[in-house]
């Protein structure tokens, strides 16, 4: 097993990794930017090293400084978390070349799966259904026009290197096409330094259903159930739950097996997620694979009792997966709600919810600074109930208990969201936000407190 792991991330996921390592008897080295000096990961890691100024490009994305620090500090592995360098094939390769284990799949696997268009071609070959779309990359507006001829409106223009909902545009009419293509391409170039574009049919009002998978370096691959992540704002997830209300046992099995088939096609190992959209007729289509641990992984941990991060580390160290597909048991219902800050600054008093069936993953502490430089997510509240209704009630009371003084967050809004009839019914899909957020905002603006409902 590893002796010392460098944590190449910040915030709640850095803390999650450090906590896991401590339980496994592994030392940690937290690297941090000057903006993060007084944060929990830095305080709780065995060692910490400042690697640069706040700008991510100068610190958390600085491959050479991170690698040199790992070597200097005698680390035998690097955990990249999510975001930042987690899906960077070049960095994974550099680690390998320097004798340091990258905790994730190999650089070659990331290359195959991380590029969405390449992954799409691979899925077509291995027989996993993909959304109808362009045959390859689209370079110009003319090529985009030609591609729509075959696909038919509406379409979704997507960046092959895309992530976090960026570089994506919906197009409903021919008039919008040129503008949408150009802006999506520009956005992709700015965000990912890669403006390869492709096109998919826009599936109307689909569910976003993803499957958690685990695979080892010995060819064993299993799936650990799904998460419905259809509550999204601008293609960014806000609330995730499992099991997905729409799936029958049969469809769940079909999709889980397709997820394993997708991962097998790339000889995948490590933790990973295969994402699908599911249309109103219950047809599912592969959209992408995330070759890393995900923000919403605790949902699956709550239901299966499997510590995904621990498994990911064991796999990286070459251990055989001890869990068999038939051992995976899922019990009850889990929901995660992301708490996002709407401004930066110093917070006052902090009180996190607790009690039966509640887990809070957060790097906040009373009096800490919320930095303006990075992702706005400051906490994840994860609840589990025996039934979906119990989980909803537990989430509501957890959100009511949450106090983050002097910080504007989406917590009250999310609490109101759980009272929306469509959410309660569980019948929602990815159009939920567009359809209902105004209503919920109105409740919010009118100061309708949850007690009035
Ligand atoms: P998940 O699928 O785990 O929910 P998200 O899309 O919410 O992932 O992304 C998790 C984090 O990683 C967010 O902070 C997001 O901004 C960041 N992220 C995701 N993809 C990329 C990418 N390709 N480049 C940079 N940051 C990314
Ligand atoms: P990212 O890398 O940014 O997560 P994804 O390809 O996973 O990009 O897409 C993000 C979200 O956009 C999905 O969760 C889904 O809601 C929506 N989406 C993606 N592809 C399609 C599609 N072909 N039709 C309809 N919605 C889609
Ligand atoms: Mg995605």
Structural class: alpha+beta
Shape: globular
Straight-line distance between termini: 53 Å
The largest β sheet comes out as: 8 strands, antiparallel
Strand content: 15-25%
Average pLDDT:
96
User: Care to count the β-strands?
Assistant: 20
- The low-confidence runs, each spanning 5 or more residues with pLDDT under 50, are none
**DSSP summary: helix tally:** 15
Report on the structure:
The chain is of the alpha+beta class. The protein folds into three domains: 4-103, Rossmann fold; 132-201, ATP-grasp fold, A domain (Dna Ligase, domain 1, 2-Layer Sandwich); 207-445, ATP-grasp fold, B domain (D-amino Acid Aminotransferase, Chain A, domain 1). It is built from 15 helices and 20 strands. The strands form five sheets. An eight-stranded antiparallel beta sheet has the order 13-12-9-10-11-14-19-17, sandwiched between helices. The longest helix has 19 residues, at 174-192. It binds adenosine-5'-diphosphate (2 copies) and magnesium ion. Magnesium ion is lined by residues 275, 288.
Task: Itemize the secondary structure elements and their pairings.
Blueprint: E1 4-7, H1 11-24, E2 27-33, H2 40-44, E3 47-52, H3 63-72, E4 77-79, H4 89-97, E5 101-102, H5 107-114, H6 116-126, H7 141-151, E6 155-159, E7 169-171, H8 174-192, E8 197-201, E9 207-215, E10 221-233, E11 236-242, H9 249-265, E12 270-278, E13 284-290, H10 297-304, H11 308-316, E14 333-340, E15 345-346, E16 350-351, E17 358-362, E18 369-370, E19 377-385, H12 388-401, E20 403-404, H13 411-417, H14 421-425, H15 432-445
Parallel strand pairs: 1-2, 1-4, 2-3, 4-5
Antiparallel strand pairs: 6-7, 6-8, 9-10, 9-12, 10-11, 11-14, 12-13, 14-19, 15-18, 16-20, 17-19
Helix pairs in contact: 4-5, 5-6, 12-13, 13-15
The structure holds adenosine-5'-diphosphate (ADP) (2 copies) and magnesium ion.
Residues 275, 288 line the site of magnesium ion (MG).
């Amino acid at each position: 097993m590893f002796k010392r792991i460098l944590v190449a991330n910040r915030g709640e996921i850095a803390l999650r990794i450090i906590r896991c390592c401590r339980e496994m008897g592994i030392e940690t080295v937290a690297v941090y930017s000057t903006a993060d000096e007084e944060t929990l990961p830095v305080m709780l890691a065995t060692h910490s090293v400042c690697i640069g100024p706040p700008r991510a490009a100068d610190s958390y994305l600085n491959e050479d400084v991170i690698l040199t620090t790992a070597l200097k500090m005698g680390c035998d592995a690097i955990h990249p978390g999510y975001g930042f360098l987690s899906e960077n094939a070049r960095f994974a390769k550099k680690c390998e070349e320097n004798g340091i284990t990258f905790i994730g799949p190999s650089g070659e696997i990331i290359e195959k799966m991380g590029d969405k268009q390449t992954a799409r071609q691979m899925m077509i070959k291995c027989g996993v259904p993909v959304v109808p779309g362009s045959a390859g990359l689209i370079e110009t507006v003319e090529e985009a026009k030609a591609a729509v001829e075959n696909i038919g409106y509406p379409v979704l223009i997507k960046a092959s290197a895309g992530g976090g909902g960026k570089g994506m545009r919906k197009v409903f009419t021919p008039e919008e096409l040129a503008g949408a293509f150009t802006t999506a391409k520009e956005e992709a170039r700015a965000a990912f330094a890669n403006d390869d574009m492709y096109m998919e049919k826009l599936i109307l009002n689909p569910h976003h259903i993803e499957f958690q998978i685990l695979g080892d370096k010995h060819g064993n691959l299993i799936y650990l159930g799904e998460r419905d992540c259809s509550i999204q704002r601008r293609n960014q997830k806000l609330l995730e739950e499992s099991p997905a209300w729409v799936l029958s046992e049969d469809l769940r099995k079909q999709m889980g097996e397709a997820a394993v088939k997708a991962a097998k096609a790339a000889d995948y190992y490590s933790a990973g997620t295969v994402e699908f959209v599911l249309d109103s007729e219950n047809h599912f289509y592969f959209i992408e694979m995330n070759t890393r641990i995900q923000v919403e992984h605790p949902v699956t941990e709550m239901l299966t009792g499997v510590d995904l991060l621990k498994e990911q580390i064991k796999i990286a160290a070459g251990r055989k997966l001890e869990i068999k597909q038939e051992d995976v048991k899922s019990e009850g219902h889990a929901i995660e709600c992301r708490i996002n800050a709407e401004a930066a600054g110093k917070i006052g008093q902090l009180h996190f919810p607790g009690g039966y069936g509640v887990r809070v993953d957060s790097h906040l502490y009373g009096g800490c600074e919320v930095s303006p430089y990075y992702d706005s997510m400051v906490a994840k509240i994860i609840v589990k109930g025996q039934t979906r209704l119990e989980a909803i009630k537990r989430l509501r009371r957890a959100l009511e208990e949450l106090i983050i003084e002097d910080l504007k967050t989406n917590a009250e809004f999310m609490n109101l969201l759980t009272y929306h009839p469509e959410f309660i019914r569980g019948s929602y899909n990815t159009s939920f936000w567009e359809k209902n957020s105004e209503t919920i905002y109105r409740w919010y603006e009118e100061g309708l407190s949850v007690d009035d409902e």
